């Protein structure tokens, strides 16, 4: 996500500073961009890195697997780390702070009709640590001039900027890689469960709008960021299968777990009303092109 955001915002003419735990950001292929080392436990150093910055987009965080393996570390980074960075940004005079959180703060699995007013009930460390980060940020925004914006991201997918980016556990990314490497698409479930999928192209476009749309925002806002419509896992696998035929010249075999007397999946509606209220529309038309780009990327980087 971070790399794609850098790529998009740079193309929009923004001056970008990349924060990294190393002096040289891993896998960065962008020119004329400053890279600054982040010391997450040093608030003074964090304030220094934020000086002269108008907007901070906080995209760093431990993934679900890492959070499950190390709940205390998850809280320290996703929660306390976000708090330290937000405080530092506020002290440095940053005007706007955008935090990329997760839809999974609501529930696991995501089912039913979900809006920004829905209760946050998920007890998984991935959800609770992100929620701690959200709460810290929004508390800072209550008494500060810095605008604080939380984006609860649904199931994003898309091409990374480098093959070694840790994104291949994502369903659509994994399927595209499978298509190239084995010419098969294997689901470990019946594939009937519903999810809200959104392409990285669309995520980047919307964050780009939020970055510059100052007059539309008040402090302390939470936004669901998803497509606003649900598809089954099997439908997304079939989309990858279809696009493989057009992009790669073959349709991989699709297999899934066959369950007798499968139940109708619980419905899912991931509402994006707060974005819509600001006339920020979510388009689902970019899914095919994102899958196409991802397939081409996998073909270049993972063909045996």
Secondary structure blueprint with pairings:
Elements lengths: L1 H10 L5 E4 L13 E4 L5 H8 L4 E4 L5 H6 L1 H21 L4 E7 L9 E3 L10 H18 L4 E7 L1 E3 L13 H12 L1 E3 L7 E2 L1 E3 H13 L8 E5 L5 E2 H15 L5 E3 L12 E3 L2 H5 L9 H16 L2
Parallel strand pairs: 1-2, 3-4, 4-6, 5-14, 6-11, 7-10, 8-13
Antiparallel strand pairs: 9-12
Helix pairs in contact: 1-7, 2-4, 4-5, 6-8, 6-10, 8-10
Descriptive notes:
The chain is an alpha/beta fold and 304 residues long. It has a domain at 163-196 and 228-304: UDP-galactose 4-epimerase, domain 1 (Alpha-Beta Complex), CATH 3.90.25. The chain is 41% helix and 17% strand. The protein is built from ten helices and 14 strands. The strands form six sheets. The protein has a four-stranded parallel beta sheet. It is globular and about 55 Å long. The protein starts with a helix and ends with a helix.
Broad structural category: alpha/beta
Low-confidence stretches: none
CATH topology (fold) name of the domain at 163-196 and 228-304: UDP-galactose 4-epimerase, domain 1
Largest sheet: 4 strands, parallel
| CA radius of gyration | 19 Å
Name of the top-level CATH class of the domain at 163-196 and 228-304: Alpha Beta
Mean pLDDT, nearest integer? 91
Q: Total number of β-strand segments?
A: 14
Q: Please tell me the CATH architecture of the domain at 163-196 and 228-304 by its name.
A: Alpha-Beta Complex
The percent of residues in helical segments reads 40-55%
How much of the sequence is in beta strands?
Answer: 15-25%
Distance between the termini: 26 Å
The secondary-structure element order is HEEHEHHEEHEEHEEEHEEHEEHH
**Quick one: overall form?**
globular
Annotated CATH homologous superfamily of the domain at 163-196 and 228-304: UDP-galactose 4-epimerase, domain 1
């Amino acid at each position: 996500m971070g790399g794609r955001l850098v790529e998009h915002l740079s193309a929009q003419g923004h001056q970008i500073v990349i924060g990294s735990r190393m002096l040289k950001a891993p896998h960065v292929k962008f020119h004329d961009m400053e890279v600054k080392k982040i010391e997450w436990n040093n608030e003074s150093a964090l304030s220094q890195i934020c000086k002269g910055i108008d907007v901070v987009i906080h995209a760093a965080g431990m993934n679900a697997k890492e959070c499950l393996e190390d709940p205390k570390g998850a809280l320290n980074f996703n929660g306390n780390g976000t708090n330290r960075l937000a405080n530092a940004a506020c002290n440095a005079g940053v005007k706007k702070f955008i935090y990329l959180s997760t839809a999974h703060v609501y529930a696991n699995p995501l089912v039913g009709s979900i809006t920004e007013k829905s209760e946050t009930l998920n007890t998984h460390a991935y959800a609770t640590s992100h929620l701690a980060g959200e709460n810290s940020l929004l508390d800072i925004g209550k008494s500060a001039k810095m605008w604080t914006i939380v984006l609860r991201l649904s199931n994003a997918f898309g091409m990374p900027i480098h093959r070694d980016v840790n994104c291949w556990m994502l369903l659509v990314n994994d399927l595209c890689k499978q298509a190239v490497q084995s010419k098969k698409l294997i689901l470990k479930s019946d594939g009937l469960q519903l999810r809200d999928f959104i392409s990285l192209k669309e995520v980047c476009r919307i964050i780009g709008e939020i970055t510059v749309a100052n007059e539309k925002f008040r402090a302390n806002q939470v936004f669901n960021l998803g497509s606003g419509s649900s598809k089954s896992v099997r439908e997304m696998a079939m989309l990858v299968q279809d696009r493989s035929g057009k992009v790669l010249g073959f349709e991989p075999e699709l297999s899934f777990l066959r369950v007798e007397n499968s139940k109708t999946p619980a419905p899912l509606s991931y509402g994006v009303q707060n974005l819509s209220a600001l006339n920020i529309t979510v388009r689902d038309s970019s899914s095919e092109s994102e899958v196409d780009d991802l397939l081409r990327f996998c073909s270049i980087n993972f063909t045996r």
